[in-house]
Known about the structure:
Elements: H1 3-23, H2 25-28, H3 31-41, H4 46-59, H5 100-103, E1 124-134, E2 140-144, E3 149-154, E4 165-170, E5 176-180, E6 186-191
Antiparallel strand pairs: 1-2, 1-4, 2-3, 3-6, 4-5, 5-6
Amino acid sequence: MNPRLRSKLIITATLLGAVAFVAGPSHAQSSEFNARLMACRAIGDVTARVACYDRLADGLRPAPPSAVTAPVVPAPPAPPVPTSQPQRPVAPPVMAAPAPTSRFGADDLPLQKRDPEAAQLPNQIVAKAVAVTADRQGYVTVTLDNGQTWRQTEGPEMRILPGAEVKIRSAMMGSYLLSLTSGNRSVRAKRVN
């Protein structure tokens, strides 16, 4: 999970818990509220999960000072209704997952271009350079055969020719290193599309 999204999720959940605590036992102990909270927690998509928490937080309004809140006692669960046939669990719909290499480095992209359903990304990719340009500082911008474009952000001048095989791997603190597969020198790079 993207570290920025993870920290936003933690902050949202903490704020939601604080609001529930401040709102009093009428909301925090409500079985309906707890069920809705657990339903939000079960959502796999990070953006949808945070939106669900936000909707729950919007519904928490402090009671007026004159209102007396009575403790909410949850109703006992209804007994199961016997059926003539055993129920089978319903499997979730299966959707084709994008290739993991198409998402590599996408955390540098703006939020609307990212795919929040990242399962597990590879630690590196290897692709051929299709187009290479250099700016005034000598930093290269490389377009790969998989459609990704990477720009060098620091390091010495790098000489990459179109058709060369390039390796991009994850580094510390969310950064990436670009190098030629035929060499051992690497420079920091950032994905730009």
